[in-house]
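#lab-general

N.A. 3:47 PM
ok so I finally got the sequence cleaned up, no stray characters, all 416 residues accounted for. can someone with queue access submit it? mine expired

B.Y. 3:52 PM
send it over

N.A. 3:53 PM
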Amino acid sequence: MVPAKAAAAPEGAGTGRIHQLLHLAAALSQTVTVADVINVVADQILPAFGAQGMVVSAADAGRLKITGHRGYDPRTVARLNGLPLDTGLTPVGRILQNGVPAFFAEPAEMARAYPRASELSHKQAWAFLPLVVSDRPVGCCVLSYDHPHPFSASDRAVLVSLSGLIAQAMDRALLYDAKHDLAHGLQQTLLPVTLPRIPQLAIAARYLPAAHGMDIGGDFYDVIRLSDTTAAAVIGDVQGHSIHAAALMGQVRTAVHATADARPGEVLARTNRVLVDLETDLFASCLYIHIDLAERRLRLASAGHPAPLLHTPTPAPHTRVLEVEPGPLLGIGMGIEAVYPVTTAPLPAGSLLALYTDGLVETPDTDITESVTALARHLTSSGDRPLDDLADYLVHHAIPQHTHTDDIALLLLHSR
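B.Y. 4:20 PM
back already:
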């Protein structure tokens, strides 16, 4: 195996090569995802070493898995992807197993060991670089050339050192991507796949992850059908952007579902008890609305969540904030039973409710009241759009104003 200390600049390398290596090391240190690493290798390392092609592979369940490539015909990549590790078609499997770099300056050299390799890609020279971290292989990076290319001792030393830097960046990126995929998958399974069909009530929802970090969070929404004429609408925001936030979001949704037939204040009180019992250091805001379509009445309770907007089309289009007396955030132990006051409001025929998380209205250096007022103004002017179009319009209206650093959830309910 190539030891981890190979990442250091080799003695005897020219000053220019050392500076080049330091520059590439700085670029790789800024990478986060596997795609980032692939882009640095393709955009900076390939031209730095005069190469025209690149393939990065990893071992996956006894087979080669290509994680990135440049300068290759997709049909060639398809043939290489999924080959067994002991394939005789390419040296990659052997490089992954023994961690020893290999250099082929011309097709004849490659043909002696792997007769079909040069025919597969029509490349003329190759550098196979093992990606090893602490004696643990994380992949193989292949640089290839369209013409024969001799590798001097200095070139080989620098490329081997560079492989250590790529390996460290790739190792970090693989871990990041794995955590992201896990958290994103968890979040997607906890958000509702579909919303229920309720007579006299049209529903549209949108969710956008934050524009930074792991693209996950604890924003959630739900609509629960209680009967043909009653439903519950829920929206909330768990603190943080992590697997723990996504998991706690699932706990909140489950607790709300379990008590959805109770009064709104009791639903939030019971949900708060669940979170307090979990002894988590995270907390959540939540808005719960009981909608009675027969009586045309809303009953609302809030755990520190932004108040909803109510748009009425007649006698003239108008949107107002439904003032809701807030209770404490969910998950904050108070030593006494938390109380969540219930607010009652009429639901005129044809009116539209907009529930949202603060990511939709929080803008740096802007008072949140001004942002809510702007949202209400857009809802007033565009409330007659089809509901899905309106949801897209409201979300994308918020994004150009700032790079959203928080999740955005939006739930629209139109009383027909």
